[in-house]
Design a protein that fits this description.
The protein is of the alpha/beta class. It folds into two domains: 151 residues, Nucleotidyltransferase, domain 5; 174 residues, Nucleotidyltransferase, domain 5, CATH 3.30.420. 42% of the residues lie in helices and 19% in strands. The protein has eleven helices and ten strands. It has a five-stranded mixed beta sheet with strand order 3-2-1-4-5. Strand 6 and strand 7 form a beta hairpin. Helix 4 runs antiparallel to helix 9. It starts with 6 loop residues before the first strand and ends in a 22-residue tail after the last helix.
Length: 325
Amino acid sequence: MSDERKWFLGVDGGQSSTVAVIGDENGAVRGVGKGGPCNHVSTAEARERFLSAAGGAVRAAEEAAGCIGVRYEAACFGLSGGPHDKEALAMEIAPAHHYLMTTDAHVALTGATGGEPGIIAVAGTGSIAYGRNAAGQTARAGGWGYAIGDEGGAFDIVRQALRAALRFEEGWGPATHLRDVLLLATGARDTHDLVHRFYTQEYPKARIASYGPLVDETARQGDPVAREILMTSAQALATFVAAVRRQIFHRGEPVDVSYAGGVFGSHMLLERFRLIVELESEGRVHPPKLGPAAGALIDAYRLAGIHAHPHDSLGHLRGHKHAED
């Protein structure tokens, strides 16, 4: 293709996968690529993983778009954990005239609302709520990582399930099928064996979080402990949304609230979240219009002064944020 064409890049880099989307100057999506997680760059090995994951996703998108090696008019990277330690690597991956380096929550909100004001709750491996009002003011709640927070995220849900299984096995907690479910899924001898496994490198956060759907399945089969874990998680996520709303929206002001992340694949949790948000605030909960990678692409267009919404006939950009993120 001619080098005179203008190309735009949006990248959503999360804790378990990365998605890159390339669009042309007319707002048409020309290429989509996927890679692995790219949330940490604290060591040389981690930096190589970032370059492989994000770079691989961008290269795959470029191959699909037929624009390998192009210099982008604008590129937006929405990165888990924030962009402050990844900017130089991102610029190395994708040369561009203009850059926006931001968080994955920021691009998730842009995609979910189509660039309009609102709030998004993101619950994948971790959790956060992020909002932006009509004046461009932003606010967040949560998103402090698995050791301190991330309430309502998949890792936290599995952690709560394991705690419940431990209490049951040791005789000081209510009976729950979560114990048998987790042992069957992992092949552990007992819950204490499972605890030790979860502390090893064989069980990174994303792998532990991947057991989250088992909690939902157990709850749907009538287990009251599993159900309570989902209800508590929904409450935590709704609380994050309420905190963001109070920071940047006026009392009584209608606010669009959306959601992203694999945790919201639980119908039980989602409906509880929706009920709490719509009862306790002026929020109207709706599914995301577009995914985070599309949101990053919208932000890239805006960076260049173009108000375009990506149109994608293949539907790559719609639906929820990827399963764990």
